[in-house]
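User: structure tokens for Membrane protein insertase YidC, please.
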Amino acid sequence: MDRNTIIGLVCIIGLAVGYFFYQSNQQQTAQLEKQRQDSIANLNKPKEQIAPVATLPSGGIDSTKLNSEYGAFAAAATGTEQTQVLENDDLKITFSNKGGAPASVELKKYKTYDKKPLFLEQGSFNRMGLKIPVNNSSLNTADLYFTLSNASDKSITYRLNTIDPSKYIEYVYTITPGSYMVNFTINAVGMQNLIAGNTLPFQWNLQFDKQEQDINNERMNNQVHYRYANEKHDYFTLSSKNHEKLEDRVNWVSVKQQFFNVTMVAKKENFASADINTKIPESGNIVGQAMTTLNLPYDHSAAYSFPMDIYYGPNHFKTLKSFGIDLESIIPLGSGIFFFVKYINKWIIIPVFNFLSGFISNFGVIIILLTVFIRLLISPFTYQSYVSAAKMKVLKPEIDALRAKFGDDQQGFGMEQMKLFRSAGVNPLGGCLPALLQLPILVAMYSFFPSSIELRQESFLWATDLSTYDSIYNFGFNVPFYGNHISLFTILMTITSLILAFYNRGMTDQSNPVMKYMPFVFPIMLLGIFNKLAAALTFYYFLSNVISILLQWVIQKFVINHDKIHLQIQENKKKGPKKSKWSERLEEMQKRQQEMQEQAKKGKK
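Assistant: Done. Predicted tokens:
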């Protein structure tokens, strides 16, 4: 390898290291963000605090004061809480007449990391309701008692009555078999004189509790995504922002955890705007909290209706894509400078993964076959890199002779080395192409495996859950820059990386200390990062290293004929170099640089 090739590889490695460290540092950012959340705690609390029901000294209800506080909704201020269940094979939703909204949402086909029922909503923080102006204040319907007006196996209707029976607010929920999507329609009948303005605020509070083994990783993946009416998608992580105001029309807002999400989707007409406040509590098993105000466009009609869909379910790519609203974009398949790898995941990795999982139940075997498929895909380029390495090996004695001849004159050495490459018909960058091709795939896998819900709680060998780190020993305390456990797949990945580096040591400039030891230092640098990543990912990298080692040994031992390559190089030298326009320009630039250096030396004398 020449100096330019080495510089190129260093840049590639630097990009990879920077990307991995960037991802790792998000956890530290989350911790710092939590420390300053107290200062904005008031923003994340419900703004409307309903006063206790007014009572007389005798213990009876003060109807006069009740009417002044609740206006037309005074009759709904008191009541007894009752629940109703709506479910299919995937969801079990328990509704409460207080607020006329879900009190709990259970995903029946999933469990938490400790095998308990998995709830996407449960607890008093989770609530939703319209904010209605009453006597110069704001009344939240989440604090009022609705009447169950209709119930069936597939649908529930709650009605919030007023003093006038012809004026009411109605919530209609409909669930369909085999779907995580719930249809939710808000009807406001005869309310045009009670509601002012062109928007109707709808408050939606949501809390995610711990569901996975590593709560820090869950918090790092706790995000709010949203899609504007113009189909532009954006998001923010709860650990990095606490408030977002969306002034333009919004199609949907999704609060996403690592493997699950709850999404509000406007159907016929988009939300007019949205205001989102988020918070991560200091301690406990709460992953994150989001308090969102969705402003519904209100036309003051006598029979106003706003249909929505609520998605309660997994971050499963195929499921989310089936809705046709770009909801699958909430799955982190590639972002930042490596945004393009999401297309590798969408067009290659996910289809192959889904195909294999269609007839293979063991996901460890699927990862093995997926790895073999990827290596076969890039095998032509891999073979060319080994041929290029063999050519460089044949030329090594001549390159060493040139290096000894020119000593510290790197400019002169570079020019003569380029002449040698051209005369021998060797491309010095031929061995770098597979590295360039494998980097996007490496990053694609880095995004795909940790976000693939199919791997959640799937075991293989000693790993009990391929979606999180495998642990063969827990320290009971945290080791700086490493963690509190030992991941065997990460250890195996590191060992095979070092073996591969040792095997390829002849391809780097051994006279340069940096390039001589960098291939050995790099795997050690990544050890602490990968120790806490998904076992599926580290198993893939380990397996890919093993295949690389075997391929290099087989190809160089039994496929590549070094004597034949040597003869071909000698034939190319006899024919003379074929100069391309690029090589001519490069040689001209090198000559100019050499002339400038000589003139500078003369000037000093």
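User: Anything notable?

Assistant: DSSP finds 14 helices and 21 strands in the chain.
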